[in-house]
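> forwarded from #structure-qc
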């Protein structure tokens, strides 16, 4: 009889699609072509094998950092020496402005302090019924289709997670503006690799690229829709003590000046939470259902676990911590397909890292996708194996060896929310539906800030 430690060894080995690295450091023109098509395809083979790789051009230097001890220096122990980059600020200037994701210093600390109460453990557990109800509503929509229909899983997960973030972060329920925000957010990210490439090369902001007009139009639609949400909230009477995200932001006051948050900054932060709060979880669930369709034995394990814990009752807060197999599969999914596949910082001053001298302004990039598949860090790194996250094995990993939510002071504020949401939705869906791969479709992992499957994710769904 197999033990828990080696139970997955007896199962058929699954090596799901990955991105083939460049055989070596690419000349600049090829680097740019690869980067615009898919930034992950510009990563050289060495990034998956070495602790630190340097790429120099006439305009800028990129240092790819993959050794966990060096990542810890950048994100934790020396984080003040490695602030957010001009790249991130530039690409999100049109949409997220100076919100919690892009700001720094005191302004960032104030915003995080305002939002933190919404993501306390007790608050998150209160939201679990809303999360599972959104998944049940999706199942109801699927039941209206012919049995065994092909479903566009990527779209379904985006709609479901947006419903969750809307109902929990905006107490009034799903907003009329939801469709605008979902569509415009996708349009903005579609061409974003051009903007990132221009920023890495420090090309002037006035120089257009093929996605400039589309991104500007999408950004304008996004911010207009969010401003309308704010205006609607101000124009209706609120229940006493209403404490959703927007309510807290409207009530917030600068600790030094006592001034309320400006409308511009309100839009920055609400848009950050609405976009980041659903997009990453949607992508994690999309890839997870694909892996389960490829590994039906794990799909059945989750189904058995959920039925043993909750029966046919809705998934509630008390169930979340009783679903370890479900959470192991989610973690292994985010190892192979991290929702945010790249983190970046810059050297604020002349310094050294891993014995290499860095000039001020050097781009320090932590390719999470490569760290999660690094040959020195993981055994058989491209294999799908949820048992990597059995407690006794997970305890041996560096804290920056597996970091789907980042690390350090700027770790994702919604990390616990996202794990609870993904667990509740996955458990609800797999208990009541079977997901089947067609045996042919192989999605390419495509980096567009988040990690999406190029061409979408069609799977056949059988309701049970």
């Amino acid at each position: 009889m197999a033990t828990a430690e080696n139970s997955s060894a007896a199962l058929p080995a699954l090596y799901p699609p990955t991105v083939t690295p460049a055989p070596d450091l690419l000349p600049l023109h090829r680097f740019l072509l690869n980067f615009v098509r898919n930034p992950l395809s510009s990563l050289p083979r060495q990034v998956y094998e070495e602790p630190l790789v340097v790429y120099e051009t006439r305009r800028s230097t990129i240092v790819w950092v993959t050794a966990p001890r060096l990542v810890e220096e950048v994100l934790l122990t020396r984080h003040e020496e490695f602030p957010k980059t001009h790249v991130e600020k530039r690409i999100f200037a049109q949409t997220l402005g100076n919100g919690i994701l892009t700001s720094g210093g005191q302004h960032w600390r104030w915003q995080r302090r305002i939002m933190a109460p919404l993501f306390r453990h007790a608050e998150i557990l209160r939201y679990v019924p809303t999360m599972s109800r959104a998944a049940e509503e999706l199942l109801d929509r699927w039941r209206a289709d012919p049995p065994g229909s092909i479903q566009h899983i990527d779209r379904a997960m985006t709609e479901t997670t947006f419903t969750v973030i809307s109902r929990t972060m905006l107490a009034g329920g799903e907003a009329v503006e939801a469709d605008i925000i979902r569509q415009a957010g996708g349009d903005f990210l579609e061409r974003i690799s051009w903007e990132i490439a221009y920023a890495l090369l420090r090309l002037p902001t006035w120089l257009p690229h093929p996605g400039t007009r589309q991104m500007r139009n999408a950004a304008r639609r996004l911010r207009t829709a969010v401003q309308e949400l704010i205006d609607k909230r101000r124009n209706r009477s609120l229940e006493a003590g209403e404490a959703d995200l927007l309510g807290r932001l409207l009530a917030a006051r600068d600790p030094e000046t006592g001034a309320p948050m400006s409308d511009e900054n309100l839009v920055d932060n609400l848009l950050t939470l609405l976009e980041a709060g659903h997009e990453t979880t949607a992508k994690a669930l999309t890839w997870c259902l694909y892996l389960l369709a490829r590994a039906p034995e794990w799909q059945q394990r989750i189904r058995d676990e959920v039925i043993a814990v909750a029966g046919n009752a809705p998934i509630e807060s008390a169930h979340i911590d009783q679903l370890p197999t479900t959470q192991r599969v989610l973690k292994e999914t985010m190892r192979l397909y991290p929702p945010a596949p790249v983190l970046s910082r810059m050297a604020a001053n002349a310094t050294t890292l891993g014995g290499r001298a860095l000039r001020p302004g050097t781009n320090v990039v932590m390719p999470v996708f490569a760290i999660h598949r690094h040959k020195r860090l993981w055994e058989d790194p491209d294999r799908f194996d949820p048992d990597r996250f059995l407690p006794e094995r997970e305890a041996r990993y560096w804290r920056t060896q597996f970091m789907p939510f980042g690390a350090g002071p700027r770790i994702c504020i919604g990390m616990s929310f996202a794990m609870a949401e993904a667990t509740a939705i996955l458990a609800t869906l797999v208990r009541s539906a079977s997901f089947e791969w067609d045996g042919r479709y192989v999605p390419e992992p495509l980096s567009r800030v988040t990690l999406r499957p190029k061409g979408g994710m069609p799977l056949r769904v059988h309701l049970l």
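QC bot note: The radius of gyration is 22 Å. The longest strand covers residues 458-463.
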